């Protein structure tokens, strides 16, 4: 508990794990980009809560990497697992910057979020099975291409060996004819 990670290397997004997820919990990925979160956002300077999903017990859902949330969230949530609770400290450059988000968030505000990653899911219209099936189909196509390339390479090698063997036979015939010509008509 209390593991603190500087996710950006400049202190811009710092995550402190408050509750670890189970070891086998899902993590957001290309296959699971939709996330559901509970959160409470506070201003670091005053401790004032400016937004929360806890009061009405709703979840906030969004797709990672699409710019629909502040940059700090895209960065931090990619590192979380379902069931994990973390405190995410966001410097202004990774939150609302010099503009802020009036009236609740002043300019140049550092924000602190307590975030629980409730779930991560596939995009609408796809399912885990269809994602898995697509991955398996692509893997099978890759194997077929590799096999076809290996067969082509083997055929090319056989053609080259056949050419070399034919050239060797031709060379042997020429040598044989030369040697036969040397022995004829020279006996006295």
From TrEMBL:
It is an enzyme of class 5 (isomerase). Transmembrane segments: none annotated. Its EC number is 5.2.1.8. The keyword Transport does not apply. GO terms for molecular function: peptidyl-prolyl cis-trans isomerase activity. It comes from Rhizophora mucronata (Asiatic mangrove). Keywords: Isomerase, Rotamase. Residues 179-188 have a biased composition (Basic residues). It catalyses: [protein]-peptidylproline (omega=180) = [protein]-peptidylproline (omega=0). Residues 152-163 have a biased composition (Basic and acidic residues). One of its GO terms (cellular component) is cytoplasm. Residues 152-188 are annotated as: Disordered. The keyword Isomerase applies. This is peptidylprolyl isomerase. Gene3D superfamilies: 3.10.50.40. Residues 32-121 form the PPIase FKBP-type domain.
């Amino acid at each position: 508990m209390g593991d603190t990670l500087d996710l950006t290397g400049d202190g811009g997004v710092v995550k402190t794990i408050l509750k670890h997820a189970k070891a086998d919990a899902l993590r957001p990925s290309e296959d699971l980009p939709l996330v559901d979160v509970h959160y409470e956002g506070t201003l670091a300077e005053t401790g004032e809560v400016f937004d929360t999903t806890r009061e009405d017990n709703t979840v906030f859902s969004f797709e990672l990497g699409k710019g629909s949330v502040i940059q700090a969230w895209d960065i931090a949530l990619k590192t979380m697992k379902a069931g994990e609770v973390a405190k995410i400290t966001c410097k202004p450059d990774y939150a609302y910057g010099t503009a802020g988000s009036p009236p609740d968030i002043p300019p140049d505000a550092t924000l602190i979020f307590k975030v629980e990653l409730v779930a991560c899911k596939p995009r609408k219209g796809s399912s885990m099975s269809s994602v898995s099936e697509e991955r398996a189909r692509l893997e099978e196509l890759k194997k077929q291409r590799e096999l076809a390339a290996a067969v082509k390479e083997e055929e090319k090698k056989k053609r080259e060996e056949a050419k070399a063997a034919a050239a060797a036979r031709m060379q042997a015939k020429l040598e044989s004819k030369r040697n036969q010509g040397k022995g004829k008509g020279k006996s006295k």
